[in-house]
UniProtKB/TrEMBL annotation:
Belongs to the ABC transporter superfamily. This is Amino acid/amide ABC transporter ATP-binding protein 2 (HAAT family). It comes from Roseicyclus mahoneyensis. SUPFAM superfamilies: P-loop containing nucleoside triphosphate hydrolases. Transmembrane segments: none annotated. Residues 1-36 are annotated as: Disordered. Residues 1-13 have a biased composition (Polar residues). One of its GO terms (biological process) is L-amino acid transport. Residues 39-277 form the ABC transporter domain. CDD domains: ABC_TM1139_LivF_branched. The keyword Transport applies. It comes from the Bacteria.
Length: 277
């Protein structure tokens, strides 16, 4: 991957708008349309750099696997079942041992930090399942999301409602009564309540219909436009690559192909092997 970085290498070309939910790099993002991707991976805002490791004392699942994302970008991890996509995401979030390699956030080595400490550093993580409190209302879920904050959360909640208007309508309803796609919006909204510097989503569209998937991807693009870097694992590779600034195809815990979403969609080998021709 190579890039033509101009004014601000952290901005993408979708025309970011500043809702000040996340503050990558500690500052407020401003729009800088027309700027392309930041391609210098080693200096990425969030990077899992040549990670090797596995679960507990088990065998290595990841083999020198590198995943990175910059503010304003959507980076997507795709690949066959069991390729280690979720494992790579969990490694970046500190849920398993990285025996070799490192994880860095905004230039700081966080490899040895617990997931809780990473949340305090600005990582928002939305797991694939059990990501909401079903018996609590939508609004209570959002309040729970802000658990690490001691300041006034109302402005952030309004921003979340601005991004996900349906949640405002349903704010007094138990989250468990919502549709699958709406519950995923609650989960993403909950993560945004910490004002994360980076948002990580593990298969946000798992189990939803194609129409709901499109809607969720639209919402994820909206979040990205606020400047928050988004790293996500997706089963729906083709659709995910369509909205990806960066794509990582993993095979057996290794980086098999890396490029912009467009590059990967156009790559003959990627198409044949991973996208059904
Ligand atoms: N908690 C765990 N403990 C031990 N091994 C695990 C654990 N979770 C996953 N694995 C193993 O790690 C490998 C990669 O799994 P992972 O879930 O990361 O793949 P994936 O690419 O996300 O797959 P899928 O698309 O099917 O979700 C698999 O061999 C799996 O059995």
């Amino acid at each position: 991957m190579s890039g033509s970085d101009t004014a601000n290498p952290y901005q993408n070309d979708r025309g970011n708008k500043d809702l000040s939910i996340g503050k990558p790099g500690g500052g407020t993002l401003t729009a800088s349309p027309g700027t392309k991707h930041a391609m210098n991976t080693s200096q990425a805002f969030l990077i899992g750099d040549t990670m090797t490791g596995g679960y507990g004392n088990g065998p290595d699942i990841l083999h020198a696997c590198t995943i990175a994302v910059n503010p304003g970008e959507i980076a997507v991890i795709v690949g066959p079942n069991g390729a280690g996509k979720s494992t790579a995401m969990k490694a970046v979030f500190g849920m398993l041992n990285v025996r070799q390699g490192s994880v860095r956030l905004d230039g700081e080595d966080i490899t040895d930090l617990s997931p809780q400490a990473r949340v305090a550093k600005g990582m928002g993580f939305v797991p694939q399942t059990n990501n909401i409190f079903a018996s609590m209302t939508v609004e209570e879920n959002l309040e729970m999301g802000a658990f690490i904050r001691r300041d006034d959360i109302r402005a952030t909640m309004e921003q979340v409602y601005h991004l996900f208007p349906i949640l405002k309508d349903k704010r007094r309803q138990p989250a468990g009564e919502l549709s699958g796609g709406q519950r995923q919006q609650v989960a993403v909204g909950r993560a945004l309540m910490t004002q994360p510097k980076v948002l990580m989503l593990d298969e946000p569209t798992a189990g939803v219909s194609p129409i709901v998937m499109d809607e969720l991807f639209d919402r994820i693009i909206e979040v990205s436009r606020t400047g928050i870097p988004i790293l996500m694992v997706e089963q729906n590779a083709r659709q995910a690559l369509e909205i990806a600034d960066k794509g990582y195809v993993l095979v057996q815990g290794r980086n098999a192909h890396t490029g912009t979403g467009k590059e990967l969609l156009a790559d003959e080998q990627v198409r044949r092997s991973f996208l059904g021709g």
